[in-house]
Amino acid sequence: MSLSIDRDKLQAADKPTLYKQIRLDIERRILTGEWPPGHRIPFEHELMARYSCARMTVSKALSELAQADLIERRRRAGTFVRRPKFLSAVLTIPDIRAEITALGRNYGYQLIQCSRRAANAADRARLGVRKTGKVIAISCRHSADGVPFAIEDRLIDLDAVPEAATADFAIEPPGTWLLHHVPWTEAEHSISAIGAPCLVIDRHTWRSARTLTAVRLVYPGESHKLIARFKGG
Fold first, then answer.
1. I need a surface site. Which of 66, 115, 178, 193 has the fewest CB within 10 A?
2. What is the DSSP string of 137-179?
3. Are 160 and 211 in contact, with CB atoms under 8 Å apart?
4. DSSP secondary structure of 58-75
């Protein structure tokens, strides 16, 4: 399969950022499905020739992809696109900011809307509760290197999480704030696709039997649905 890329742009790039462009090019091929799970990545010497760069540059790009669990490097066999670990992915609550940073990409956050209101019937149905007082409704955008990474649409039950009323979600992402300030004991993910190619994760969290929050995360992704409910500390 061709590894064609805009070589003029690569040659014009500053040397310290060349490895990043190589990483992003390989990452794009993986995330778009051009290189499916199990596909062998070209050997390092092939990548060096293709991108006209040193082995260290290629190795750094591959190392970051391995750290992001997109590829796996097997001794004597080569480097391959990692098969997705769906089960482990849905049995944790990730911090999106930390997730993007771990990929070696620049994190960006934009609060689209944040409002406090009396819970209506739709809010109660989404939270799965019969009665509650007020909720905070939040919409925000997470980006990686200036490119949209996920759209978040969250409801927080203020009766269950009253401290959220004083949080500044214009500065700190709500998911990050909740993970650092609010303990939870149980959660459920429901993953489905809307349109194409968007992946949607709906999550509820509880402390004991009390609903804390409901959130919808929209990602680029393939069509599938997977539901997992799990315990937390």
1. 115
2. EEEEEEEETTEEEEEEEEEEETTT-GGGGG--TTTS-HHHHHH
3. yes
4. HHHHHHHHHHTTSEEEET
Tokens encoding 42: 């070209």
Would you give the distance in Å from CA 35 to the centre of its chain? 20
Q: Say whether 126 sits in a helix, a strand or coil.
A: helix
pLDDT, the chain, mean: 82
Averaged pLDDT for residues 207-224: 72
The predicted structure's pLDDT at residue 37: 80
Q: List 72's β-bridge partners, or say none.
A: 80
Place of tokens 């992704």: 221
Is the pLDDT at 225 greater than 60? The verdict is no
Q: How many Å apart are CA 141 and CA 137, to the nearest integer?
A: 14
Phi-psi region of 78 (alpha: psi -120 to 50; beta: other; left: phi over 0): left
The pair of three-digit structure tokens given for residue 221, joined into one six-digit string: 């992704």
Higher pLDDT, 76 or 147: 147
Tens digit of each residue's pLDDT (9 = 90 or more) over 111-167: 999 999 999 999 999 998 888 899 999 999 999 989 888 999 999 999 999 999 999
Single pTM value for the model: 0.55
Nearest of 167, 159, 152 to residue 207 by alpha carbon: 159
Q: How far apart are CA 135 and CA 154, in angstroms?
A: 10
Q: Evaluate the CA torsion angle 25, 63, 145, 27 in order and state its sign.
A: positive
